[in-house]
């Protein structure tokens, strides 16, 4: 099947399609708010006194080990349980996404997340807290499975990278808002933590409203046999009537996909192996940059370095703001510079930042005592340079690349593996980080630095450039041309 050039796909940017992008991207705001809120709540005294009194008692000791005062498996379970729940639910979300469509699955994500916010804010016992986290996790699993796919499928090809990165942009905005909320509620005794957790319902409610505005994607409608509705939806999101070339591409991809009865089993076929391997490794590497360790526990981390509670939350707000601003760099550059260059540049910047933080803390922050003001400020700057580079590279591209590289017949199944892998390793890092910080102390930053070196090698040798390639033409234009991956197709 020959592939038409990108410019032959007619499209205009209309108010309606931009509103579709924005409303769907509230799924990212939902996810980001939860990432940001967990670490701040975990550091609030009122929260610890009610649910984790042992941690609070350790925190009170003046000479407590800087690196170990928050080391508690149940406290870490408060954060990680969400991601274990999201891991399992992403596979159910994949089925819903294929059988029901993108829009109904996004609707379900918002309902689960609202339920999680209500239960979490009303919690009186630890088990209620964990149930709330599990409901949050189902919402995240459904949202993270569906929203990036939705954005990729409705975006015009020349803006596909930028539109998909709106998901990550809203993740960073959610983290930033959560840090502001935590900063404000930390003085609302004794129920500030309830306000922080309960406000998670707001982005979910906005996503719920959006479900009544957005259309389902043309690819999803055609995949489910609704050809006329699919063509009408394509005209609506492209803002033009002449969509025949792109519509025929979608129909051709659907006809190939119909021959596939078991999409999860077909992930082992040649066309799906490269995107599957890359999708999984991108998620593993994204977590082993150490980003979520910093974003989950930024307030705790800054308290470890000697900042008082308010100063720790304020420093987390600063890093959140850097996170948001830097994501705009990715939106601007991803379809101009390309995916690979952004990833490789970020590896260099993240490596330098992590090594510098590790050296400063290993030399100057002992088990007791604090950093002096100058060194503490330098560490905050280094954390910001690290967050900055992640925000325009491995953060957004970890979601973009898997959403654009699978063929239609395995797209939702393949992306479910990407989401579940992300959730698995996010939960592992969330569950283990405070213990790793206790055992490894400052050397934890050298641990993450080693992973960043591996990430760079992965990009150099295994990751092709996908900028400007139609999503239903990846096999011919990308995988069969790549020096490593083309070997899978030598018998075809």
TrEMBL record:
GO molecular function: monosaccharide transmembrane transporter activity; symporter activity
Limits of the Major facilitator superfamily (MFS) profile domain: 20-467
Transmembrane segment boundaries: 12-33, 105-123, 129-151, 163-181, 193-214, 276-300, 312-335, 342-363, 375-401, 413-434, 440-463
Membrane topology: Multi-pass membrane protein
Cellular localization per UniProt: Membrane
InterPro entries: MFS_dom, MFS_STP/MST-like_plant, MFS_sugar_transport-like, MFS_trans_sf, STP/PLT_plant, Sugar/inositol_transpt, Sugar_transporter_CS
Origin superkingdom: Eukaryota
A Pfam family: Sugar_tr
Alphabetically ordered keywords of this record: Membrane, Sugar transport, Symport, Transmembrane, Transmembrane helix, Transport
Cellular component, GO annotation: membrane
Entries under NCBIfam families matching the protein: SP
PANTHER family listed in its UniProt record: SOLUTE CARRIER FAMILY 2, FACILITATED GLUCOSE TRANSPORTER, SUGAR TRANSPORT PROTEIN 8-LIKE
UniProt record similarity statement: Belongs to the major facilitator superfamily. Sugar transporter (TC 2.A.1.1) family.
Protein name from the UniProt record: Major facilitator superfamily (MFS) profile domain-containing protein
């Amino acid at each position: 099947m020959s592939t038409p050039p990108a410019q032959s796909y007619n499209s205009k940017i209309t108010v309606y399609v931009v509103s579709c992008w924005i409303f769907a991207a509230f799924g990212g705001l939902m996810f980001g708010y939860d990432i940001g809120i967990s670490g701040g709540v975990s550091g609030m005294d009122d929260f610890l006194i009610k649910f984790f009194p042992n941690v609070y008692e350790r925190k009170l000791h003046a000479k407590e080990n800087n690196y170990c005062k928050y080391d508690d498996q149940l406290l870490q379970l408060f954060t990680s349980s969400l991601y274990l729940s999201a891991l399992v639910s992403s596979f159910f979300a994949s089925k819903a996404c294929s059988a029901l469509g993108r829009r109904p699955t996004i609707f379900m994500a918002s309902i689960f997340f609202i339920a999680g916010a209500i239960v979490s804010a009303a919690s009186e016992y630890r088990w209620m807290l964990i149930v709330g986290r599990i409901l949050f996790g189902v919402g995240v699993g459904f949202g993270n499975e569906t929203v990036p796919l939705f954005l990729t499928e409705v975006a015009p090809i020349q803006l596909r990278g930028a539109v998909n990165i709106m998901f990550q942009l809203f993740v960073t905005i959610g983290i930033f808002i959560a840090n502001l909320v935590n900063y404000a509620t930390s003085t609302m005794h004794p129920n500030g933590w309830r306000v922080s957790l309960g406000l998670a319902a707001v982005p979910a409610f906005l996503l719920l409203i959006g479900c009544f505005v957005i259309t389902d994607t043309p690819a999803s409608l055609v995949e489910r046999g609704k050809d006329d509705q699919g063509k009408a939806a394509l005209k609506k999101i492209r803002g033009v009537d002449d969509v025949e070339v792109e519509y025929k591409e979608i129909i051709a991809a659907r006809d190939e996909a119909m021959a596939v009865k078991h999409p999860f089993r077909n992930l082992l076929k040649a066309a799906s192996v490269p995107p599957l391997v890359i999708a999984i490794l991108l998620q593993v590497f994204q977590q082993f940059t150490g980003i979520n360790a910093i974003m989950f526990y930024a307030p705790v981390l800054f308290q470890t370095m000697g900042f008082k509670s308010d100063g720790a939350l304020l420093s987390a707000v600063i890093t959140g703001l850097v996170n948001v601003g830097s994501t705009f760099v990715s939106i601007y550059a991803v379809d101009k510079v390309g995916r690979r260059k952004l990833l490789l540049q970020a590896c260099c910047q993240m490596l330098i930042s992590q090594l510098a933080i590790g050296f400063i803390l290993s030399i100057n922050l002992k088990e007791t005592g604090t950093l002096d003001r100058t060194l503490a400020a330098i560490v905050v700057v280094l954390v910001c340079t690290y967050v900055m580079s992640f925000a325009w590279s491995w953060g957004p591209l970890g979601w973009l690349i898997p959403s654009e590289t699978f063929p239609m017949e395995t797209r939702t199944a393949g992306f479910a593996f990407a989401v579940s892998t992300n959730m698995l390793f996010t939960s592992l890092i969330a569950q283990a980080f405070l213990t790793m910080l206790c055992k490894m102390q400052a050397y934890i930053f050298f641990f993450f630095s080693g992973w960043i070196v591996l990430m760079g090698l992965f990009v150099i040798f295994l990751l092709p450039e996908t900028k400007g390639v139609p999503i239903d033409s990846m096999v011919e234009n990308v995988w069969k041309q790549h020096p490593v991956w083309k070997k899978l197709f030598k018998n075809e």
